[in-house]
Design goal:
Layout: H1 2-10, E1 25-31, E2 39-40, H2 41-48, H3 54-62, E3 66-68, E4 71-72, E5 78-79, E6 84-89, E7 107-110, E8 114-119, H4 136-143, E9 158-159, E10 168-174, H5 177-188, E11 193-201, E12 208-212, E13 214-218, E14 221-228, E15 240-248, E16 252-259, H6 266-273, H7 296-308, E17 314-322, E18 329-333, H8 338-356
Parallel strand pairs: 10-17
Antiparallel strand pairs: 1-6, 2-5, 3-4, 3-6, 7-8, 8-10, 9-10, 11-16, 11-17, 12-15, 13-14, 15-16, 17-18
């Protein structure tokens, strides 16, 4: 029972029993899954807060900002099933302010209602614990700072959907409350049209295919998601990904993925499920040489590719939707970022040389 865990924590050397200031405010809360194995809390949180470094989490623990079952813990505390983890700060969440910052943004379309940005890799989309500024929303606030009526801190405006820090590509921002409500319903109803380009390991057998598999957390590693047979896991959510081969490189393949559903890590998990992990996806094992020969020259070639594109090779390439005001059908196709373009070209040259031997 939960009370038994609390009693055990009170005897744990990793817990600091210092009382918490009455002026601390909760900003984040995490409930540990009942199947979670013991893990250091700094390592646990860095997986759930991917935009925050482990050092920053350790600093937060030292400052008394990380609580387990309402008590401050050190960064070496090991989380246990059903732990309740809180991130507390000295100011209320409502006082958090998105400050305009001059951040370069690749704006591909803008009118009175919406902005479309082709987000560069390594740019956090929205502020959060450990990333209070330097985000896409800070850049949007700067871009629209002279627009009457636009308030970057008004939750009725702003982001309609999200992509993570390491994924590049198209993202839409609403400039009015009406636009956000309308577009939000389109995403909820799955009437938007989105495709991604992904470089994956291996030579994909079929030119086209569909992956159907319910997604839930992996019981062996709660930081990952995995595919479950339909009906096996009541927590698993139905997910469908359609893919099409764009170009083959022998040991790697460039594919287009179209999401029928939008689940966490869906493309990454579905492609791994069929044996084609995303290139340099460190969370799912794609940052190892999964296909190809063992020659030193080939191993160095792959390492060079990893250095050029130090992230999962995934780009949100197209986005189609109905304009929230005019009702016009709109469709946008974005350019690949330089890191992904360079890696694809390196694979193209390597494959060309390999087939000429």
């Amino acid at each position: 029972m939960r009370e038994e865990y609390i009693e055990e924590f009170e005897e744990d050397d990793d817990i600091d029993n210092t009382s918490v200031s009455q002026e601390m405010y909760e900003h984040h809360r995490f409930e540990v899954d009942k199947g979670q194995s013991q893990m250091r809390i700094d390592k646990y949180l860095v997986n759930f807060m991917p935009n925050v470094s482990r050092n920053r989490i350790q600093d937060a623990a030292t400052a008394g900002n990380i609580l387990v079952n309402e008590k401050p813990v050190k960064s070496n505390y090991k989380v246990k099933p059903l732990d309740s983890i809180s991130i507390v700060l000295a100011y209320p969440p409502s006082n958090f302010e998105i400050i305009p910052q001059e951040i370069p943004l690749n704006i591909v379309y803008e009118d009175d209602d919406i902005i479309l940005v082709n987000k560069q890799p390594n740019l956090v989309v929205h502020p959060g614990f450990g990333n209070f500024d330097g985000t896409l929303l800070n850049g949007i606030a700067w871009h629209l700072k002279d627009m009457p009526g636009f308030d970057a801190n008004d939750s009725r405006l702003g982001l309609v959907h999200r992509i993570d820090k390491d994924t590049s590509g198209l993202i839409i921002v609403a400039k009015t409350a009406e636009a956000k409500t309308n577009l939000g319903k389109q995403f909820f109803d799955k009437t938007t049209k989105r495709t991604y380009n992904a470089l994956v390991w291996g030579n994909v057998k079929d030119d086209e295919g569909t992956v159907v598999g319910a997604l839930a957390r992996d019981p062996r590693d709660r930081m990952l998601f995995t595919v479950f047979p339909e009906g096996e896991n009541p927590l698993a959510k139905h997910a469908v990904t359609h893919y099409k081969v764009l170009e083959r490189f022998g040991y790697a393949t460039l594919v287009e993925c179209r999401l029928e559903t939008g689940r966490t890590h869906q493309i990454r998990v579905h492609m791994k499920h069929i044996g084609h992990t995303l290139f340099n996806d460190d969370r799912y094992g794609g940052n190892e040489v999964l296909k190809g020969n063992r020659t030193a020259k080939y191993q160095q070639f792959v390492r060079n590719c990893f250095e050029i594109c130090p992230r999962q090779a995934l780009h949100a390439k197209t986005l189609g939707f109905t304009h929230p005001t005019t009702g016009e059908e709109m469709f946008f196709d974005s350019e690949l970022p330089d890191d992904l373009t360079q890696v694809i070209e390196k694979w193209r040259r390597y494959y060309s040389q390999m087939t000429q031997i």
